[in-house]
């Protein structure tokens, strides 16, 4: 007779997950809603010396200094020409708050774990290592970000990085 699973044994989750989807150009990405602290309108950043091109700078958010990452620059090497239409999504990763500059927030997605597909291995894709999976929603493909990998990736992984 097989004993019942203990509380410490991993069990495949079938509980749907929620993501906030957002756009950068024509591409759509998703971030696990649990990691999101807040979404705010574009605020000009203060640049810091000796940072990679995708590190936009920092903002003061109610007394906390928050670094802001430009995902377009991180993924393509081209900086975002930020306007009042852009937003900063503040996420919490490993106890650190980080802002992510994006074009617009698109949707709240409820996704079953079985519908998340693996990311194909592509040698030329600079950001495929920062993705946890892909999901098709209403005929559009949404790339799900792996925030710890994205934020802890070596600086040399970014296009145009001189590290």
From TrEMBL:
Organism of provenance: Magnetospirillum aberrantis SpK
PROSITE patterns, A to Z: CHEW (PS50851)
CheW-like domain residues: 16-156
Taxonomic superkingdom: Bacteria
InterPro entries linked: CheW, CheW-like_dom_sf, CheW-lke_dom
GO cellular component: cytosol
GO biological process, one term: chemotaxis
Name of the protein described by the UniProt record: Purine-binding chemotaxis protein CheW
Lineage: Bacteria, Pseudomonadati, Pseudomonadota, Alphaproteobacteria, Rhodospirillales
């Amino acid at each position: 007779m097989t004993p019942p699973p203990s509380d410490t044994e991993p069990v495949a989750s079938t509980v749907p997950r929620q993501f906030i989807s957002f756009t950068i150009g024509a591409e759509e990405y998703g971030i696990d809603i649990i990691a999101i602290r807040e979404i705010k309108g574009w605020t000009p950043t203060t640049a810091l010396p000796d940072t990679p091109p995708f590190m936009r700078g920092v903002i003061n958010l109610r007394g906390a200094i928050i670094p802001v990452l430009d995902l377009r620059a991180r993924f393509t090497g081209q900086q975002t020409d930020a306007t009042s239409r852009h937003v900063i999504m503040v996420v919490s990763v490993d106890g650190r708050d980080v802002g992510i500059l994006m074009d617009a927030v698109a949707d709240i997605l409820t996704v079953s774990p079985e519908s998340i597909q693996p990311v194909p291995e592509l040698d030329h894709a600079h950001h495929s290592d920062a993705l946890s999976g892909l999901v098709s929603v209403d005929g559009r493909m949404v790339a799900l970000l792996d925030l710890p990998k994205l934020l802890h990736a070596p600086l040399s992984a970014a296009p145009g990085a001189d590290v």
